[in-house]
Design goal:
about 400 residues, mainly alpha, 3-stranded parallel β-sheet, disordered C terminus
């Protein structure tokens, strides 16, 4: 009985100390939050959902550090002190596209000098070499090619799958899926997704969301799928048991209200399906596009957008700081503004670089881990579903390159 009493007393003492620490931390944090944001801070601490008006209020706030503090309440609740990265390879199989989006410097017509189209053996060999460096995911998107036959896509998936059964194939945006279904296979979207999955597809990419507002889309990507059509593809994929990421392209002609509306629609779809693994916002790079007159988003605006997204998207477990668009130093800082993931090694990204991005085209595992540690977080390699890859599994990846 004495032993039990001693253990109970010790447990009560530990709880009391923890309560005191939490009280001090909360009191200190509250002093750093301006009065106009206190009610939002209180809701977030109580794990209550904020509304669209409150999200707009956060966007308009000039107190970037207060936004980071509030966002980090959510980040720490969901992910502790861990920040993740993935070893992956980007492959753009072709930039030939039937569309001419105003914001895009990647797409091309067949006659254009910068048009390209990779052959399946070339893609397979690139992936095989990347497997030797331990990648666990290949991320593959392209333009809406007018003449590639449907069987080409299925052969490509099967060839990649044959390289390594464990390789995660993350490929195709929602509009690519619609293009394949409506123009190439001429079958339903569901059957198209089934065929892609049967051939080796593991998950969909989140590209093509841009900004959901129809007026904005008409000015920056006229002719592209509507927001509803984008959501319908992801909804169907989720109902089939699949997972995907989602995105936002910001910093062009959209308003705060457009951003909030975009986040609202993503949160509602996530409430419905639970199929999104993470949210990846990125700033528009205007340099070589038809919208080159637009001033690029500032670092503060990028941090603000990440923080508000983390606070508002309470049903998302992960927010990614996409270093390829925002630079690695800014992505590192974003780990203190609600971000818990730095994406991946990438290797040879083309879409943002053809638009004028001057960031490196890849990062090493060591660089990503160092950046995470310098930000005060604990680095962890993850898989495509944001699940940590234990050290023993990482050593197996590194010790057994593909044949």
């Amino acid at each position: 009985m004495l032993l039990i009493n001693e253990e109970l007393t010790r447990e009560l003492d530990e709880r009391n100390v923890l309560c005191q620490v939490n009280f001090v931390n909360n009191f200190t944090s509250m002093r750093l939050v301006p009065q106009e944001l206190r009610s939002i801070y209180d809701k977030v601490v109580a794990a209550q959902r904020i509304n669209e008006d409150e999200a707009a209020q956060l966007y308009r706030s000039r107190d970037i550090n207060a936004l980071g503090l509030i966002a980090n309440v959510v980040r720490e609740r969901k992910n502790g002190n861990r920040a993740t990265y993935i070893l992956n390879r980007y492959i753009n199989y072709s930039n030939i596209c039937i569309l001419s989006c105003q914001f895009c410097a990647f797409g091309a017509k067949k006659r254009d000098s910068h048009a390209f189209e990779l052959a399946i053996p070339e893609i397979v060999e690139t992936t095989r070499k990347s497997l030797e460096f331990g990648i666990t995911e290949v991320h593959m998107v392209g333009g809406l090619h007018p003449t590639l036959p449907g069987d080409w896509y299925l052969k490509l998936l099967r060839a990649l799958r044959a390289l390594d059964p464990a390789l995660h194939i993350k490929a195709f945006t929602a509009i690519e899926v619609r293009h394949l279904a409506e123009r190439i296979f001429k079958i339903s979207i569901q059957r198209t997704l089934e065929m892609l999955r049967e051939s080796g597809l593991n998950s969909l990419t989140g590209g093509g969301a841009e900004i959901f507002h129809s007026g904005v889309r008409d000015k920056i990507c006229r002719g592209k799928e509507t927001a509803q059509e984008w959501k319908d593809v992801h909804r169907l994929w989720h109902q089939m048991g699949g997972r995907s990421t989602c995105t936002m392209l910001f910093g062009h002609i959209e308003t705060i209200e457009h951003r909030v509306d975009h986040l609202r629609q993503l949160r509602e779809l996530q409430d419905e399906t639970g199929g999104f693994t993470g949210f990846v916002p990125f700033a528009f790079v205007p340099e070589t596009t038809e919208l080159k007159h637009i001033k690029p988003a500032s670092g503060l605006d990028q941090l603000r957008n990440l923080a508000v997204s983390r606070i508002y998207l309470d049903n998302f477990d992960h927010i990614t700081g996409y270093w390829i668009a925002m630079t690695l130093p800014l992505a590192q800082i974003s780990l203190n503004y609600g971000v818990d993931d730095l994406h991946g090694t990438l290797m040879e990204e083309r879409i943002f670089h053809m638009a004028g991005s001057r960031t490196p085209q890849e990062q090493t595992k060591a660089t990503l881990e160092r950046s995470i540690r310098e930000a005060g977080r604990d680095p962890m390699q993850r898989d495509s579903y944001y699940r940590p890859i234990p050290a023993i599994e990482r050593s197996q990846y590194e010790a057994a390159p593909a044949a």
